Amino acid sequence: MLPQTNHLRSLHTVIRDRAARREDFLHVSSRIMRLLIEFGLNLLPFDPWEVQTPVGRTYSGLRLTNDVCAVSIARAGNSIEAELRAVCPTIRLGQMLIQRDKVTKLPRLYLSLLPPNIGDGHVLLLDPMLATGGTARAAIEVLLEAGVAEEKIIFISLIAVPEGLDAVLDNHRAVRIVTSAIDERLNENAYMLPGIGDFGDRFYGTD
Ligand code: URA
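# uracil complex -> structure
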């Protein structure tokens, strides 16, 4: 979880406000996404790497060990892509569309476009809402089938609830989840409490 600083809480205060202006919602949720991505990158492995500074000294630094790619879960996960590209402009980015089947009520995979050799490195899996965890689990299973090791999956979410965290971690203990807030619980309509409403609708202006 991101450190619960006053700064972060002030950002959440904006996006959770039902009266937030759309431009404020977009701007501030993007700022939190940037913090989440930077935090998630810090969980990746790094190797020692030295460079020469302009004043002729050696700086003993680090650089990422492996390639990293990202997969967004449409539609809400696409909202994180712009911030990800701002931080990692050349990142390879896949996409999944998973929706709940109206009859079985189970998550169903409609589309999976994954970068080639995705199993070679770490994967940032993007979905701002970790609610029931059903979609997250389905997406993780697609990645496992594609050869990604569980411990190489970093799930990036803006808000999670205990139900979603348990659903993922009870089944995939090695997956790491980065979030900026853990809310109390889901209500009877599977909305988070105190929550944010329908994130995708608010972000894309379809509410
Ligand atoms: N998805 C949302 O957009 N909001 C919630 O509260 C739960 C799932």
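# post-check
The two ends are 29 Å apart (CA to CA).
Residues 6-204 form a domain with the Rossmann fold fold (CATH 3.40.50.2020).
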